[in-house]
Write a structure and sequence with these properties.
Blueprint (H helix, E strand, L loop, with lengths): L8 E5 L11 H8 L3 E5 L5 H6 L6 E4 L8 H6 L5 E4 L9 H6 L4 E2 L6 H16 L2 H9 L20 E5 L3 H10 L5 E5 L5 H5 L4 E2 L2 H7 L2 E4 L13 H6 L4 E5 L8 H9 L3 E6 L19 E3 L8 H19 L21
């Protein structure tokens, strides 16, 4: 382990020049006062990053798919930290970062309220058929008979299942607790006592699918969660149940979901994230009357944006001054550079 020196530090925002609205001038001015140089790049691929010929003290990115691969990590000998403007680190090779002693961080607490509220809103929209009824009236109709509205069950008699029970799912539980009969969660990293303290019963994955009237997905995208919800899982779910996803699109097999929705196994779905974004025109999900779509919008609010940018700036300043930052997603890492407690 090497002690951190006091030379000028370099922060590279790998896709900074691609941002549609932020020129990062605020960060540039703020960090310059602390002896930190900001460099904006236009990297879309691994080859772009490897070709930039710049060894940074911190690698930062905002786009979801910037590929910080093992080769990229091995090319960065000075790198002290990798940071994302956002919540998911799907495109970072976390194993390689950990092996090479590089913490990977996100702004802690960013958009918890927003995403939880969005998931809650999608569930209530499905429960009360709001989106479907809006379409009927907008197209000139009123209250014609429909399988989507002929039978509506009381929400307070129903069970909510949360796949994943991290900070966002826990906030969803708080939002929904006064409105449903029971809340279940499935998360191998959360104890029964932690769930019980919030009035939630921890169960196994399959049991949650079988018992829940609403399933809300709050999973990171990993090798283990890729495609975790497919044909077999939808057949396990209650007939006439609902699925909501505000986490990552690829955790769901979208073709299998479209079949389950079209065939009536599932009554509806609320989707904010998709395997390919924007959602392709030929997606089998398009045109289904029992799907509520939003365009990866769940994290949005002006306050959340401020929290995100402030959070990243804080992580940069702490880590490059030798202090352990908040929001590290690989906390077992043994840092290549010394950090103060």
């Amino acid at each position: 382990m090497t002690d951190f020196d006091t030379e000028t530090k370099t922060v590279v925002i790998l896709d900074g020049s691609l941002h549609p609205s932020n020129d990062f001038s605020s960060e540039r001015d703020r960090w310059a006062k602390r002896g930190i140089e900001l460099v904006l790049k236009e990297c879309r691929t691994e080859a772009d990053i490897l070709a930039m010929d710049l060894d940074a003290d911190a690698l930062v990115y905002w786009g979801l798919d910037v590929p910080i691969t093992r080769r990229v990590i091995e090319s960065q000998r000075r790198c002290r930290i990798i940071i994302r403007y956002g919540t998911g680190v799907d495109s970072v090779d976390l194993d390689a970062a950990t092996e090479h002693g590089i913490p990977v961080a996100i702004p802690a607490g960013y958009c918890t309220d927003e995403v939880a509220l969005h998931a809650t809103t999608l569930m209530l929209t499905l429960a009360r058929r709001v989106s479907f009824l809006d379409r009927v009236i907008a197209s000139g109709g009123w209250r014609e008979p429909s399988p989507h509205t002929d039978t509506v069950d009381r929400l307070s008699n129903q069970t909510l299942g949360l796949l994943g029970f991290g900070r966002i799912a826990q906030q969803v539980a708080k939002n929904m607790k006064p409105m449903v009969a029971e809340i279940l969660c499935a998360d191998p990293f959360v104890s029964e006592s932690v769930a019980a303290a919030q009035g939630v019963q921890k169960v196994e994955f399959d049991e949650l699918l079988r018992q829940s009237d609403f399933v809300s997905v709050h999973l990171p995208l990993t090798d283990e969660t890729l495609g975790i919800l497919g044909k077999d899982e939808f057949e396990l779910m209650k007939s006439g149940s609902y699925l909501v996803n505000t986490s990552r699109g690829p955790v769901i097999d979208e073709s299998a979901l479209a079949e389950a929705l079209a065939g009536g196994q599932l009554a509806g779905a609320g989707l904010d994230v998709f395997t390919v974004e924007p959602l392709p025109a030929d997606s089998p999900l398009r045109g289904l009357p029992n799907v509520v779509f939003t365009p990866h919008f769940a994290s949005n609010s002006e306050e959340a944006k401020e929290d995100m940018f402030e959070g990243v700036a804080d992580i940069v300043e702490k880590s490059l001054s030798g202090k352990w930052p908040n929001g590290v997603v690989n906390p077992s890492v043994e840092p290549r550079f010394a950090f103060d407690a």
